[in-house]
């Protein structure tokens, strides 16, 4: 169970990175918005740091997505949403 949770957290971290890159945001930008260092933010994306629920909601707010999109990222759905919001 613990290993499965660790894998899922790595996936969430990867999803955060994917959405950030789609938005063309830098790690520095997100770190500044979260009021943490770029190094601390990098550890979030690499899955080295645990993400609190508050932090996950804050990241979703900055990235302009629902938390569920960070938990279960669907590239095609995300791209189609970008197209309709433009």
TrEMBL record:
Domain named HTH cro/C1-type: residues: 16-70
GO molecular function terms attached to this record: DNA binding
Name the record gives this protein: Helix-turn-helix transcriptional regulator
Record's keyword terms, sorted: DNA-binding
Domain of life: Bacteria
SMART domains for this protein: HTH_XRE (SM00530)
One Pfam family here: HTH_3
């Amino acid at each position: 169970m613990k290993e499965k949770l660790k894998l899922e957290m790595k996936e969430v971290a990867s999803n955060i990175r994917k959405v950030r890159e789609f938005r063309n945001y830098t790690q520095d930008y997100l770190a500044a918005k979260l009021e943490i260092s770029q190094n601390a933010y990098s550890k979030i994306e690499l899955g080295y740091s645990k993400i609190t629920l508050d932090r996950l909601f804050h990241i979703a707010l900055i990235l302009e997505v629902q938390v569920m999109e960070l938990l279960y990222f669907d590239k095609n759905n995300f791209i189609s949403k970008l197209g309709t919001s433009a």
